[in-house]
Structure prediction request, 284 residues.
Amino acid sequence: MRRVSERTGAARGRRTGVRRRRAPALSGRRLRRIGLVMACVAMLTVGGVFLTRGGSEEGRGFDQFVYDLTAGMGLSVQEVLVYGREATRPIELLAALGIGRGDPILMLDPDVARDRIEGLPWVREAWVQRQLPDTVVVRIEERRPLALWQNEQRLTLIDDEGEVLGDGEVGAFADLPQVVGADAPDHAPQFLPMLAAEPEVAGRVSAAVRIGGRRWDLRLDNGVAVRLPEDDVPLALHRLARLQREEGLFDRDVLAIDLRIADHLVIRTSTQVYERMQLPEENT
Prediction:
């Protein structure tokens, strides 16, 4: 059974009232163990014996012999300490680490393990370290979900760099904004902060739809469609928020709001009548 311990920095920070103690004297048994560890390390490094990767069959067999020998001397994994894990599944993390309890700790290549862990969907960056004789430390920085991406009738999570995090457990993120369109992940990290800056609008949006690879449409929670321009999006959203705040625009008899014409607002009502009006001037 593999053992994974997860720790945070909080416990390390509580030092008030803690009395510093003198380090205990090393027992003869521990001194002998440290001596064996040092001897193993010296044996594996002198003459390039350690890790004959990609060599002959005899070389690989000798590597395994040395690994097994050092494990018998106490250089085997007994604990894996993980810091920073929230969404990454422990079973996936351990599989990417490629080593488990009882395995020779010197078999672990920290750089290779780091690259595999960084290949996991939720992991932005990882650090792997061996702490001889028996502990592996893994620190990861996870990606933060930004939005739900709907593409071809499928919902997946994306982060603030537009990276896809996978489609598992999306129900736990139902409160995130939803973006639609093949290229939406590439543009959502720039667009969604603009939208969030106008809470009167953002609070009514059920989805933001990427149109023609050039601009966005908004779907409001009451079915109203808002067509945004290609340029000056923050200004258009600010004016829209002002109209909602001062005139309750979204709650009128409106089917669509078109902001693609500069300085003008075009409204489509349920009677198929279009109303065109000048947008209010902004205070400088």
About this structure: The longest strand covers residues 123-131. The chain has two domains: 4-10+24-142, 145-278. The two ends are 66 Å apart (CA to CA).
